[in-house]
Structure formats: C-alpha cells, structure tokens
Amino acid sequence: MDGFKPLSEVLESNAYSKMLVTVNTETGEKFPARIDEFHNAIQKFELNGNPPDDVRKHFDLARNLFLYTWFVYGFSTPAIGQAHASVEMALREKFKTLGMEVPRHPNLTKLLRAAIENGWIKDGGFPHLFTDEEPEFPFKKVERNPDGTDYCQLLLETMPGLRNSLAHGKNMVMTPGMALMPLNVCGRIIDQLFP
User: Fold this and answer.
1) How far lies 111's CA from each of 77, 118, 176, 179, in Å?
2) Are 144 and 152 in contact (CB under 8 A)?
3) What tens digit of pLDDT does each residue of 38-58 get?
4) Do residues 127 and 143 lie in contact, with contact meaning Cβ atoms separated by under 8 Å?
5) Which residues contact 59 (CB under 8 A, 6 or more apart)?
6) Residue ranges of domains in the chain
7) Phi/psi at 75 (nearest 5 deg)?
C-alpha cells in the first residue's frame, strides 16, 4: 500500500487502476479501463430495498470509499469494513422497526444468527448464487435453494471474522476485485432486511 499521496498526484489513478482493462467481448480487443466504467460497476451495488435513510447513507459511504480505490488502492479495505458496519446497523434497525428488543451486546454474529432464525434473510436473496456460474464464495459448496439458509449459515461463519479483521487494525489490503463480492453480499443482506 502506498503512503500519503502528494497534492500533485491526488487526482491520479493508482498503479492498479492503470493496469485495469476493458475487453470487447466480440473482438477480444483490450482498452484501458476508464473511471466511468468503474463507477458504473459500483453503481450496480446500490440498495434495491427500502432501508431507513441512515442505513442507505451508511452503505453509500462504503460504495463511495470503494469508488475512490481508483485513486487510493487501499481504500477497498475500509470500504468493506464500512459495508459490514452498515449490515450491523441495518440489523439493529430491523429489530427496532419490528418493536423487538435488540440482543444484549449485539455483535455481527448474534445479529446475523437472529436474522437467519427469524427468516429475515434467505439464500434466495443472493442472486449471484442462482446464476449458471459457480458461487463466488467457494469456501464450501452450498445447496442452491431460494428458501434455504445454507449460504446464510456460511456467511454467519465467515463474515464476523472478516469484519473483526478489518475493524481491529490488521495490516490487510484487499484488492478491489476481492472487495466487490463482500460489498455485493452486504448490500443484498440489507435489501432482504428492508424489502
């Protein structure tokens, strides 16, 4: 990860962004990627549900951080940390919206477990599982059942650990490519909580 950018380089893309290419699928021709294409890719991860405004703004901060990885490669890591914090915020808001008491000492594990047990999130809310491609979270094979929770259980096993690694000062930088899936997953959880 690079150090603090000099003022003269603030609006320059980082070295990783300069290596990105767009491929014409018909001709195979490659072109340097452009920031507008990068923006369009991230824009697809907007929230489609109806969350409270504070949750939407919280998640949009994650998307904006991710957008700025174009300039600062290391922003992908805090972007994913912010996305995970948005999920925690959305889970707490779900309890409040339903007039339910938030679990004592609510952490991501307890909140996600409650969301699964209450049927607030199901595998069908993750459209990437139901494409012809293999799931992009290949730690385990999951049964592709829209009403099931195999994938949700996998998230319960993996998300809190990733979130804690990001929140507690580990020296970790995720490539922007690696960060896209967690950003998408966090958005789809929030969509399910507030359809």
Assistant:
1) 22, 10, 27, 22
2) no
3) 899 899 999 999 999 999 999
4) no
5) 47, 51, 82, 83, 86, 90, 186, 187, 190
6) 7-193
7) -65, -15
